[in-house]
Amino acid sequence: MRRLLRSVLVAGVLGTAGTVMAACSSPPPQPPAKVGAAVERPLSSSVRSAVLVDQAGRRFTLGSLEGKTVFISPFLTLCADVCPFTTGNLAQVQASVDAAKQAGSTEVIEFTVDPRRDSVARLAAYAKANGVTWTLARSDVAGTAAMIRYFGYTAIPKPLKHSDVIDPLTGQPVTYDVIHSDGYAIVDAKGSLRFINNAAPHFHGLLPAKLRAFLSKEGLDTLRKPDPQGWRPAGALEALSWVAGVEIPLAPLR
Fold it and tell me: Domain coordinates of the chain in residue numbers?
């Protein structure tokens, strides 16, 4: 009787464990609407084939990244208001991808919408100055225009008559700004756009010293009072986990 009872108990424990394991292996859920919008739209041929170049001079295309989940966010190196906070948030996104051991199957890209100024050399200097470990990418004017159209970005040059922002490479005042959109897009391993968020970054944390020093008055105001509706690393990782089908928890920066 005792042996039978023990057998029943063991079977019950194993059955419970099996249920728990099954529950743990279920795919991450779709994020709530407040995080962003789920979509399903294959990359256009012009976007798949647009030649991108990273901060090390390596050439690639989004088409060549098929098989990986791609997290892509617009920026420009001479933005002194919002882009430093995009970079700050992406540092935590990349740290979380690394901690979850998903770096081989997930690509994080900061894509410049300012191709006339953001050369490979400028991207490399920005990466070195700010501890960037993910991909910074540029395309030519035509490739950038294709990306802007497809992802629904805004990128409008705005001349500056009087600027207090100094270009760290030239030492000269910045002569124009680019009014641009923010947020991120996530492309799945099959090459389809699956998730979009068009909000500005909501950043709380320590910026690299050079990024903080580059902030304009508006940027310092944003640092003190970030947009409460802005995107945060935790929400971005919810979306990334859902698209990738693998849980990528928020990890602390080291």
Answer: 36-244
What the block records as the tokens of 49 is 């084939």
Tens-place pLDDT, residues 146-176: 999 999 999 999 999 888 888 988 899 999 9
C-alpha distances in angstroms, 57 versus 52, 68, 72, 146, 168? 9, 21, 18, 21, 21
Structure-token pair, residue 64 = 């060549």
Q: Please state the pTM of the whole predicted model.
A: 0.88
The terminus-to-terminus CA distance of the chain in angstroms comes to 56
Query: Hey, what CATH class is 36-244 in?
Result: alpha beta
Q: Would you list the DSSP string of 89-122?
A: HHHHHHHHHHHTT-TTTEEEEEEES-TTT--HHH
H helices, E strands: number in the chain: 8, 10
233-244 helix and 83-99 helix, angle to the nearest 10 degrees: 50
Backbone φ and ψ for 132, nearest 5 degrees, come out as -75, 125
Pairing of strands 52-54, 135-138: antiparallel
